[in-house]
Amino acid sequence: GAVVSQHPSRVICKSGTSVKIECRSLDFQATTMFWYRQFPKKSLMLMATSNEGSKATYEQGVEKDKFLINHASLTLSTLTVTSAHPEDSSFYICSGRGNTGELFFGEGSRLTVL
Amino acid sequence: KQEVTQIPAALSVPEGENLVLNCSFTDSAIYNLQWFRQDPGKGLTSLLLIQSSQREQTSGRLNASLDKSSGRSTLYIAASQPGDSATYLCAVPDLGGGADGLTFGKGTHLIIQP
Fold first, then answer.
1. Inter-chain CB proximity A46 and B49 less than 8 Å
2. Nearest residue in chain A measured CA to CA from B50
3. Is some CB atom of chain A closer than 8 A to the CB atom of B34?
4. pLDDT tens digits, one per residue of A62-89
């Protein structure tokens, strides 16, 4: 299957700082990428849909000014958690949609905010 | 809003057994259903994608079926192995305005005892 690379896999930061997570589709072009978060022992929850060259669409309850998403090219989307707080600590996973409609996921990024 | 339920939440069986994992969804107007595997602290690996026009898909020891009218899918694992131990998630397209993001079940945590 197609490969989605996510970086960094783990990040620890101080409260109030910003953290950027990158999501790259390595062998396919993804006009649409999705960002999810997963709390311990919970399922994945969609945060936002990122379309190349346009503004992201955020799910209800997700602060767009806090979770900045940029999809500058067909192979790269970034999620920036601004002014991070401990409650933002979570597992963030991105995915890109291949041309068959199947979604391919990155390995995830574990964010810990101290 | 689409809701996805997976039963059982956890399952522990001896190696070699055949298993059935269940997934149900509330809105049958889906165009595909996808099964994923998630290892602890890792991202998702796509196992099988079933289009709405299909009734089942097979990959190796895995077989997934889809009954749209009843809102159900099953994942059958034949001759289970310890390496199959993981959390299995089913997901359907998000019909709540998520622009083709996925709605996930909470998963079935599977342990195969050697």
1. no
2. A102
3. yes
4. 999 999 999 888 899 999 999 999 999 9
